[in-house]
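Just scan my protein:

. . .
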Amino acid sequence: MNHKNGFNPLSRTTAHRRAMTRNMVTSLFRYERITTTEAKAKEVRKAAEKLITRAKVDSVHNRREAAKFIADEKILNKLFSEIGPRMKDRNGGYTRILKLGFRQGDAADTVIFELVDYKLPEAGAEDAKASKKSAKKAEAEKAEA
């Protein structure tokens, strides 16, 4: 018997569901935090966790298997060079789902879907970036004068 071994088709065709999952996993690895519905997050979690497990061991085989799922080469490199090593000591549970509430239009449960070790960008870091940009502009203006 095959009880409890199914998945949620999300009212989509196979091709649409596969494309959506690939796009959401790529976005998760790019931004490390995305907002989506609870049902989608629970389905995407399965694919994301398997890819992170593969990324913990950087081999040609693992890269090629992950490349079947992630089309963007920069994101693939980020997965194997940053995300995989960060999760090296963790035996699973690489993602987290935080409930937000209901979406305005259709009352769907919305969630924040993020990597477990995600850190919020600090205000000080943004101020430092802004000050660096203003310093570069000032240097450019001095060079012109």
About this structure: The beta strands are 33-37, 95-102, 109-115.
